TrEMBL record:
Protein name in the entry: F0F1 ATP synthase subunit gamma
Source species: Myxococcus xanthus
Pfam families, per database record: ATP-synt
MF-aspect GO terms: proton-transporting ATP synthase activity, rotational mechanism
Keyword list, A-Z: ATP synthesis, CF(1), Hydrogen ion transport, Ion transport, Membrane, Transport
């Protein structure tokens, strides 16, 4: 009886956990689709900004020493080895670049970087959806531009996972700065602002859209990894639930059989007792 009650409690817990995993899987699939749907528009806008850069002939030259690094990891868990792979690439890139400020998006990734001995200057929360990117983008771009200019850095790289399919984690390094673009032969020029102001605006806008593109891929990769993890967890939970249901059904059958046997034994004992009483009550025994 006690084992049956304990089994039903475990079954209830597995069912509740299965519902939570199913909801997480649905959310991951939704955010993955949203991120991939936004890619085409972002790439189109980026090509337009690149034309602006060519028209302006903008140059954001390199400094004298040090290299900045931005590592984009995951904010939430349950995504397999996603964070560890990104952090491993980020730590290797930091060692290769030498000294310089390190920024990190994703508090979990920042904690892993610090465990590897990488000094993280500042860490930010990683958006869990496309809608959360603009809130991070402004402060991130300003931090990168300000750090690059103030510290006169040689370069500024970003390490993140590029989306290469659901469940595929492909961390790679991309150089954001310095930015040197060959000026286009024919361009419309600027009529209402100075060319220097236009050039800086073009550089800033290019950095925004480049970071937006990187964050889109990172969100898609993270949710793709989480989708695979939730599918595996869902399969495991289904197997455990089916096994537990079979065990409970077998236990109930065994208990029912035991009850039937006990009833049969009781009935037989009663019949034997009645027969014994009848024999002793017969005239043969003088009763």
């Amino acid at each position: 009886m006690r084992s049956d009650i304990e089994g039903r409690r475990r079954l209830h817990s597995l069912d509740a956990l299965g519902e939570a995993v199913g909801a997480m899987k649905s959310l991951s699939a939704h955010h993955l689709r949203a991120a991939r749907m936004s890619v085409e528009a972002a790439r189109t806008y980026r090509s337009g900004v690149e034309r602006m850069l060519q028209w302006s002939g903008a140059v954001f030259a390199r400094g004298v020493e040090g290299a900045g690094l931005l590592v984009i990891g995951a904010e939430l868990g349950f995504c397999g080895s996603y964070n560890s792979q990104v952090v491993s690439e980020g730590a290797a890139r930091r060692a290769l670049l030498g000294g310089g400020p390190t920024l990190c998006v994703g508090h979990r990734a920042a904690a892993l970087l610090r465990r590897r001995g990488v000094a993280v200057l500042r860490d930010y929360g990683m958006p869990t959806s496309v809608a959360g990117i603009p809130g991070l983008l402004l402060q991130l771009a300003e931090e990168i531009l300000g750090s690059y200019a103030e510290n006169r850095l040689l370069s500024f790289d970003v390490v993140s996972s590029r989306f290469a399919g659901v469940g595929s984690v492909s961390p790679e390094s991309v150089r954001l700065l310095p930015l040197e673009v060959a000026r286009a032969d024919a361009w419309p020029g600027t009529r209402y602002v100075q060319s220097g102001v236009f050039s800086f605006a073009a550089i800033r806008e290019f950095l925004y859209i480049a970071l937006y593109d990187v964050l889109l891929d990172a969100i898609a990769s993270e949710h793709g990894a989480r989708l695979i993890a939730t599918q595996s967890a869902e399969k495991w939970l289904e197997e455990r639930t089916c096994r537990l249901r079979r065990q409970l059904a077998a236990a109930r059958r065994e208990a029912s059989t035991q009850e039937v046997l006990e009833v049969a034994v009781g009935v037989r004992a009663r019949h034997e007792a009645m027969a014994h009483e009848q024999r002793w009550a017969s005239p043969r025994f003088g009763l």
